[in-house]
Input
Amino acid sequence: MMRWWFGRKSAPDMRPFVPAWLKTDEQPGFARSYDNSSNRMTGAPSPFDQVIGAGDGEATTFELKKSYGSGELRRITRPISGTVRVAVDGAERLTGWSIGAAGTVVFDTPPDSGTVTAGFLFDVPVRFSEDRIEINRATFLAGEAPSVPLVEIREA
Output
């Protein structure tokens, strides 16, 4: 389980945040997308960044995954639209595939052979870990929420 703390300082920054917090009363475990820039690759995604499978002439669906140097493998369920690039056997595929449900790459026809790779940016699913939050409204247009603890949710 990963935890993050972030603070928001200006009223315009807090506007989208407060309604999301209020939803926790209705749906306490509701996952939200969080832009965790520390998980981003440097530069633009390349279609050769991550190995996601191997073509066998039958499989058409491959789960997006990110591999870390420690051997950890993270399933990516929330790729950022328009950032996914795919290659088969070292050749980028510009067409013939789409992004399916929960971060899968779906080929129109199964790749015959070769390593299937992908590059992408992604958001992390999180929920608020606290039942309450302290917000300081310094003035009408300024305030802060100095500590907002988040917990990562590992989606299947």
About this structure: Residues 17-23 form the longest helix (7 residues). The chain is about 5% helix and 40% strand. The CA atoms of residues 39 and 70 lie 14 Å apart.
